[in-house]
Amino acid sequence: MPWLDLARSEREDFAAFLETLSPQQWEAPTLCERWNVRQVAAHAISFDELRGGALVRRFLKGWLRVDRINQVGVDDYAGHTPAELIALIRTHAEPDGMTAGFGGRVALTDNMIHQQDIRRPLGLPRTIDDRRLRVALDFALNSPTIRGARRTKRLHLVANNLDWSHGDGAEVRGPGEALLMAMAGRRDALKDLDGPGKDDLADRLAGFDLRR
Description:
The chain is mainly alpha-helical. It has helices spanning 3-18, 23-26, 37-45, 52-61, 66-76, 82-91, 105-122, 130-142, 148-151, 176-183, 198-205; strands at residues 155-159, 165-166, 170-174. It is 52% helix and 6% strand.
């Protein structure tokens, strides 16, 4: 299945999940430590409508730093209601602009991670489609913003619920979703991982800014 089709399915699932949340849950904290659920949802869609000069202005206003650029995008959508954010995610179910990069793998991986950023603190687990998860795991290794291979250098990552592994060195094993979240800097994933390389990975995740 083409990556854009996988990304579309992931975004449709994200929108459907957001529709189930209560007003109180929309204001709940997430793994993105400075953002609540509404702000994470805003971030997930905040690049799809940008073109040309607007994109350049966003980057300049954010001082060309990923965390600041992302915060500017979230601030731009501060006035949107949950229903409006869900509608935007559905409108852009097929990624557009920057998020369509790398054949749609940017949107697929970013939306998968951010859905888990919301689900994990709310205690709402999810079974992720294996095809999507494998693509996201592979892409996260060398994604320009995630750089999972760099964060897990000299570690052997092993998914215990699907056929996926990467790297050499001390083993870190666990569900594929937890490995993805760890590559994305989410310390919460460590509780679902095990192996002799876990402590080394934990040290590498300390102090990571999660506004991305």
